């Protein structure tokens, strides 16, 4: 199973953040090329801004599996690798949205449950582990969640 996006940040958010971040940086770089500000610091700020926007564009919940190992991630904030034998069940569940663009709610260490999401999901793929912990990854729709669960079953042989 290849890396599958469960949910992405909405496209309008990604373009909005890109414009808000890069327009002033392009103006700074233009000022540097015109000799109004130092070129090296302006170029360094521009490069950092482009890198930050690239990370934001790549953000989303991803789920993949191969050779008895399931990978769940919210790039660049959170990731876990779980051996398939530690998973008791995988199912699609309804969940309350996080209430912000992306992030986590809960803690595996403190609460025994975590919900990772990008994009205001109200549906998730829930991984119930044998030790009682639960990892929920936001997905864009119940149909998408069901396709992911079916792919995971094929990839892990369960």
How would you characterize this protein structure?
- The protein has 158 residues and is of the alpha+beta class.
- It has one domain: PH-domain like (Roll), CATH 2.30.29.30.
- Helices cover 37% and strands 37% of the residues.
- The strands form two sheets. The protein has a five-stranded mixed β-sheet with strand order 5-8-9-7-6, covered by helices on one side.
- A hairpin with a 4-residue loop joins strand 8 and strand 9.
- It is elongated.
- This is DUF3093 domain-containing protein.
- The chain crosses the membrane at residues 12-33, 39-59.
- Keywords: Membrane, Transmembrane, Transmembrane helix.
Features:
158 residues, alpha+beta, PH-domain like, four-stranded antiparallel β-sheet, 9 strands, transmembrane, transmembrane helix
Topology:
Blueprint: E1 4-8, H1 11-33, H2 39-58, E2 60-66, E3 69-75, E4 78-83, E5 87-94, E6 102-107, E7 113-118, E8 123-129, E9 134-139, H3 142-156
Parallel strand pairs: 7-9
Antiparallel strand pairs: 1-2, 2-3, 3-4, 5-8, 6-7, 8-9
User: How far from one another are the termini?
Assistant: 14 Å
Largest sheet: 5 strands, mixed
Mean pLDDT: 88
Task: Determine the CATH superfamily.
Answer: Pleckstrin-homology domain (PH domain)/Phosphotyrosine-binding domain (PTB)
Q: What overall geometry do the principal axes of the alpha carbons give? A: elongated
> Rg from C-alpha positions?
19 Å
Number of distinct beta strands? 9
Order of SSEs, N→C? EHHEEEEEEEEH
Poorly predicted tracts of residues = none
- Name the beta content range: 35-45%
**Helicity range of the residues?**
25-40%
Number of helices: 3
Keywords: Membrane, Transmembrane, Transmembrane helix
Protein name: DUF3093 domain-containing protein
Transmembrane segments: 12-33, 39-59
């Amino acid at each position: 199973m290849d890396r599958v996006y469960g949910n992405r940040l909405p496209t309008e958010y990604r373009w909005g953040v890109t414009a808000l971040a890069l327009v002033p940086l392009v103006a700074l770089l233009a000022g540097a090329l015109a000799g109004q500000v130092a070129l090296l610091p302006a170029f360094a700020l521009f490069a950092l801004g482009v890198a930050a926007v690239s990370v934001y564009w790549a953000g989303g919940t991803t789920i993949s599996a191969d050779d008895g190992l399931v990978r769940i991630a919210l790039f660049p904030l959170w990731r876990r690798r779980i051996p398939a034998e530690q998973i008791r069940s995988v199912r699609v569940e309804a969940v309350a949205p996080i209430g912000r663009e992306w992030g986590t709610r809960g803690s595996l260490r403190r609460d025994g449950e975590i919900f990772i999401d990008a994009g205001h999901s109200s549906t998730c793929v829930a991984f119930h582990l044998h030790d009682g912990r639960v990892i929920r990854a936001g997905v864009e729709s119940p149909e998408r969640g069901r396709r992911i669960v079916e792919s995971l079953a094929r990839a892990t042989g369960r």
